[in-house]
């Protein structure tokens, strides 16, 4: 097929196809996260970012491809989440600049736009790392430039771009040792490859619905993602039509009660009649089911007609929902947080101090130290550029300081500073512990530069440790890590593993202490508790009774314990 010029309708189809492909494969991309911690959200971030780009394109009434490129870049910019989403937005920022005044795109225009995107993305990253999405983008652009020398067919240029992206993706483990050690390709690069695949399919007219076939571990992640939609958005517990969240895993062909051959469509359609929120994932050996139903026994019995049950889980969602409502009612009796933020704004003078954090206790800590605005998010919830812009634009502050508290949020925060017309500084706090140490130095009577200097100096003296649970088996930096092990992560490196959180926390702190250590701060999360935190405190004092140990309730998700040493 030959396409000499990409028109407005074809460009819309390209963006839509790529957005759908990213959305369909988001969980697979997430599974490529090299660290076994529950923050593998590259696919989710890229999918949401491009979905925002497509929304802007779909709302544009222009018939010029250049205008649609500008709309795509704007939507990606405002919806960018996480480093991968921001880099994707930068690629299409350069892409759109190159084509801004074009009515249609020739093959040469397409190659130029792809190349411009790479140049913009490399400039946006302070220290570009090879073996990442940038490598995939660069190699793909080289193929586009070489191909257009011999053809005026946009389909051939896009095909070469996509094929080169696939080849470059396969080389990422050789360029980035951590990828090779774990045995995966770069997740951001995989996302960009899906984008270019979507572009090629739309241009060639060969759009497929293919997606990566998940293994058993990936099935778990997909079911969890589906379940997170749950029933919490319903207003009344009595409105829940199907009260039991039911999950089964069936080993096909095994068992005494097998009396029929597994047919996916028939199996799924039958379950759809007895429940909703249905997800059925299958390969040649296993089928996994997630469904909300009033009759969990019927689901189990039906599964046994095709094989043996190797996993069963049933939760009463009405009881869960009542618990959630009770907790929400307690939290909303008095809007204490809003009052505390209002008081903090009065004390901050001309400043706005925006921090990204999750957990009621941690929010209270930040507010007590001067935070004027809270953006709910963190390790598994990366806020978008638009989220930062909305909060800053709504504030009356004349200057802002942002604490991202996660390195995957740096780029989105930095991008927001370019979209708001007041002085803003991003303090590069990699964790909430660094953020707490940094904000402790805030002085409303000092100017912006001096405040940030003092904050960064405070952060440099802090060792930041996090205890969390491994979500997959892996080997990293010579350490063999098993799923459900607890890990101690110090300044981004996994230093210890243990079968329980307390042992992991104590071992981690021991590795953090040195002759200059004076203060240890323990913040326990929703999966930790005060009693165990005090046992950790005693173990630390047994190591060195001259240390000062503080314990705070943080209520943070993901990490049972956050521990800093200063």
Polypeptide structure, described:
The protein is α+β, with helices and mostly antiparallel strands. The chain is built from 22 helices and 18 strands. The protein has helices at 8-24, 26-30, 42-59, 65-79, 82-99, 107-124, 133-148, 154-175, 177-182, 187-204, 216-227, 264-272, 296-304, 317-332, 336-347, 360-368, 385-394, 410-417, 432-439, 448-460, 501-512, 530-543, and strands at 5-6, 105-106, 244-252, 275-282, 286-293, 307-316, 351-357, 373-376, 399-403, 424-426, 463-469, 474-476, 479-481, 486-490, 493-498, 519-524, 548-553, 561-565. The strands form 5 sheets. A 6-stranded mixed sheet has the order 15-14-11-18-16-17. A 4-stranded antiparallel sheet has the order 4-5-3-6, sandwiched between helices. A 4-stranded parallel sheet has the order 8-7-9-10, with helices on both faces. Strand 14 (486-490) and strand 15 form a beta hairpin. Helix 3 packs parallel to helix 5 (82-99) and helix 19 (432-439) packs across helix 20. The chain is globular, with a radius of gyration of 26 Å. It starts with a strand and ends with a strand.
